[in-house]
Amino acid sequence: MNSQDIIYSDLFDIRNNFNKPVTSNFINYLWRCLSKLGIVAIKYAFEGQSKLIETLIELRKLFTTTAVMEIKGYTNLVILAVKGDMPELELIGKKADQFEDIYNLQFKQMLDSITWLPERFDR
User: What are phi and psi of 67, to 5 degrees?
Assistant: First the structure.
């Protein structure tokens, strides 16, 4: 069975009321720490489209698969960066069903709110 790890990062600096910049050193560190099928999930306070695009561009330098997830009722976004190919959403949906009743969260609805960005072509 393939294992998959997830690194969660919250970029928002509450003291200064803005997101910490995503540096190439930080992204390289995340890349090195992840397993072959690992995913980075970054909580991101939306500060405008240009800042979001800058962050996505930095991530795309290493991660071939990236996505943005909106969570209904919240202004924050979750940026996903996958070390491998795009995950099988159908399989994730089946696993999410197991947790729906336990945690009373709407995982399926969250999955539907993911916007996957086009793959990089420089593989």
Answer: -155, 160
